[in-house]
Amino acid sequence: MNGTSPQKLDTIKVNAKLRAEVEYIFDEMGMTTEEAVNIFFSNVKNTGTIPFIVKARHQKQIPISEEIIDAELKEAEDDFKRTGKTFDAFAVLDELEKKYAI
Predict the structure, then answer these.
(1) Fewer CB within 10 A of the end CB, N or C, for the chain?
(2) Which residues, other chains included, contact 51 with Cβ-Cβ below 8 Å and sequence gap of 6+?
(3) CB 79 within 8 A of CB 85
(4) Phi, psi of 94, rounded to the nearest 5 degrees
(5) Number of other CB atoms surrounding residue 43 within 10 Å
(6) What is the C-alpha to C-alpha distance for residues 91 and 95, in angstroms, rounded to an integer?
(7) pLDDT tens for the 102 residues of the chain, in order
């Protein structure tokens, strides 16, 4: 694959109702399903990640030690003393959930 000519995927099975719903949204955004899939693939290629969080349905919670909590609080306190910047509590919680898979 040289990166310039599109190649057809053999088959991608998608729930028909779901496909119709997202095709409507893509149309509202002014793009085709093919364009949306190409955007998704390009994002994965460029970032090396999926552009959203994927969690197991029955994700096992990893216990966080008191030492980890103390270290995170100390880091936050040091950042505040150094920069005076505060953060939204929900954004911090989201970051910790990602970092520690909780």
Answers:
(1) N
(2) 40, 43, 44
(3) yes
(4) -60, -45
(5) 14
(6) 6
(7) 445 667 776 788 888 999 999 999 999 999 999 899 999 999 999 988 888 877 666 656 666 777 888 888 888 888 888 988 887 778 877 887 777 776
Question: What is the H or E stretch that residue 21 is in?
Answer: helix 16-28
- Please state the length of the chain: 102
One-letter amino acid identity for 76? A
Q: Are 96 and 72 in contact (CB under 8 A)?
A: yes
CA 65, CA 56: separation in Å to the nearest integer? 22
Q: Can you say how many angstroms the Cα of residue 41 is from the centroid of all Cα atoms in its chain?
A: 14
| Encoded tokens for 6 | 């599109």
Residue 35, SS3? helix
